[in-house]
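TASK: fixed-backbone design
INPUT:
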């Protein structure tokens, strides 16, 4: 006999309104294109710098033979570092802006910034042109995360917020898949065309302008400030006073660890693939196909990690899941970058690495908004998630140095993996927020 449908527990999606899904969708879409943008640079790093540095070295004539992997690693690390500094500044600055002018308006502005300047990167004539375009692009990417994560947290129901944040973070994996697919389709057209495609997110800002309003939580908090005359010009110092000091420090360190590990090691995966002995001598277009499939394998695992963090955090708590992701990353980075000598081995290991190393990022749109009251939520979340990027910006630069010193990307990535010990050490001091409503 079939069971009585009334006895079945309702799906976690029960009761969610169409508008709440809409807010999650547009924020998700904005983050998809953020990810696509960052991945495009990782994919085109070698051919772009090979051309730009070769032209500079040859006085205006392309000279690819003179540009070795050490040179690419050095200048690529510098541009990665500049990009992360811009991301950090944008996240902190636009987090403050989102608390003043609203989450929706800030989301529109930041998406336009990173879309336009990604497209302009196609006009680069020297490596430092590319560095400048990437810096401004990063300002928009950092700000988009702060406003997008907070608007989802404030619009969705309290008991379903963690699952919504996991879905939001899954956009990063979707962006990786999108960039890899575009690379496969356009691999014969050169690296500049990929940057031109990066203009597409501008259309998302139109959707947000038409469909999304400011969250009621923010409107009430802002109105209360204006009526009481308690509007303050500088909110950052408040993050380090009273009961907010500890969560601010812990949240910033956790984000630093995650970003340092990702950009200092995992995002060098395309270069690792190119260094495999069996792929030496392949034409650039052929190698691009292998790189794209590797990125897809990494992000298949990442997608599972993103979607798993929310349900696991609801069941076991935020701190235990952060610990799981740190420990898994600590183990899997050296295993993935040092042990395999064949392309098929790499494809088997990358999904496991992606689950931990990328999956940890789902914790931040869940955890950081839960630490701050409404009037400081975007400022606090934006600061914690991005302030550590200034220090983490040394990760790519350090990796380039370690490659030159240790002789391979595998050894360099394994050394970078030790940063996850810091994450495990700070977690006992992290406030547990499972089951608590957003502070007002």
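OUTPUT:
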């Amino acid at each position: 006999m079939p069971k009585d449908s009334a006895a079945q527990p309702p799906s976690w999606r029960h009761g969610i309104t169409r508008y709440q899904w809409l807010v999650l969708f547009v924020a998700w879409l904005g983050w998809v294109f953020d990810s696509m943008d960052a991945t495009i640079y990782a994919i085109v790093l070698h051919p772009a710098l090979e051309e730009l540095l070769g032209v500079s070295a040859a006085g205006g004539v392309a000279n690819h033979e003179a540009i070795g992997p050490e040179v690419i690693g050095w200048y690529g690390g510098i541009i990665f570092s500049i990009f992360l500094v811009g991301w950090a500044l944008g996240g902190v600055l636009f987090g403050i802006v989102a608390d003043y002018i609203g989450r929706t308006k800030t989301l529109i502005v930041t998406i336009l910034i990173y879309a336009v300047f990604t497209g302009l990167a196609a006009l680069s004539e020297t490596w430092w042109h590319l560095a400048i375009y990437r810096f401004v692009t990063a300002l928009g990417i950092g700000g988009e995360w702060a406003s997008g994560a907070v608007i989802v947290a404030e619009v969705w129901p309290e008991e379903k917020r963690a699952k919504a944040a996991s879905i939001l973070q899954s956009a990063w994996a979707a962006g990786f898949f999108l960039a890899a697919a575009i690379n496969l389709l356009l691999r014969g057209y050169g690296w500049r065309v990929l940057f031109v495609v990066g203009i597409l997110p501008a259309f998302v800002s139109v959707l947000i302008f038409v469909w999304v309003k400011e969250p009621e939580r923010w409107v009430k908090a802002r109105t209360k400030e204006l009526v009481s005359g308690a509007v303050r010009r500088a909110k950052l110092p408040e993050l380090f006073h009273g009961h907010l000091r500890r969560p601010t420090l812990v949240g910033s360190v956790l984000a630093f660890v995650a970003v340092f590990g990702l950009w200092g090691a995992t995002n060098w995966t395309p270069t690792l693939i190119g260094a495999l002995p069996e792929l030496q001598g392949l034409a650039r277009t052929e190698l691009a196909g292998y790189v794209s499939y590797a990125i897809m394998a990494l992000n298949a695992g990442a997608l599972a990690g993103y979607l798993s963090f929310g349900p696991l955090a609801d069941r076991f708590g935020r701190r235990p899941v952060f610990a799981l992701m740190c420990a898994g990353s600590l183990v899997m980075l050296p295993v993935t970058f040092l042990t395999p000598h064949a392309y098929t081995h790499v494809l088997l290991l990358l999904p496991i690495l992606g689950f931990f190393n990328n999956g940890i990022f789902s914790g931040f749109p869940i955890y950081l908004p839960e630490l701050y009251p409404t009037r400081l939520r975007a400022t606090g979340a934006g600061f914690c998630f991005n302030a550590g990027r200034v220090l983490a910006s040394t990760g790519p630069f350090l990796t380039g140095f370690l490659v030159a010193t240790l002789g391979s990307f595998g050894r360099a990535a394994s050394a970078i993996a030790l940063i996850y010990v810091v994450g495990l050490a700070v977690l006992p001091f992290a406030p547990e927020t499972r089951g608590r409503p957003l502070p007002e």
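COMMENT: The chain has one domain: 19-429.
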